[in-house]
Write a structure and sequence with these properties.
globular; 5 helices; alpha/beta; five-stranded parallel β-sheet; about 140 residues; about 30% helix
Length: about 140
């Protein structure tokens, strides 16, 4: 099984950014843990702060991978383009959020990803990614 985790803007700052919301761990260290926890899965990771790069990566893997775990960050709430890219591909997508977006600002309650996602996992910290990977088992 071949899966990819795609992270959007500012998620490269995990471990530094708002630790009271996002925790103290870097995503890179957490990704190593995921790789060891899921040894039978070929697991890749991509992060970009640029909307077009995220869309290009979704299109690149969206017909050949077994699944995408997507945390589009703030683009979740603003990017019709990312939503359209997910609608256009055949690879299933699980939308992930580290924080509970519904306990935050009201603009974070809207997702352009959810209507075309296989499922949504919100608010379990970094463990949200593990739960998403399990959805593909």
């Amino acid at each position: 099984m071949k899966l990819i985790i795609i992270n959007g803007p500012n998620l490269n700052l995990l471990g530094k950014r708002e630790p009271e919301v996002y925790g103290n761990a870097t995503f890179e260290s957490y990704f190593e843990k995921l790789q060891s926890e899921f040894p039978t899965i070929t697991l890749e990771y991509f992060q970009s702060n640029i909307e077009g790069e995220i869309i290009s990566k979704i299109q690149e893997v969206g017909f050949s991978y077994d699944g995408i775990v997507l945390n589009a960050g703030a683009y979740t709430h603003t990017s019709i383009g990312i939503g359209d890219a997910i609608k256009a591909i055949t690879t299933p997508v699980v939308e992930v959020h580290i924080s509970n977006t519904f306990s935050r600002e009201s603009f974070r309650h809207q997702s352009y990803i959810s209507p075309n996602a296989k499922g949504v996992i919100i608010g379990f910290g970094l463990q949200s990614y593990e739960l998403a990977l399990r959805a593909f088992e």
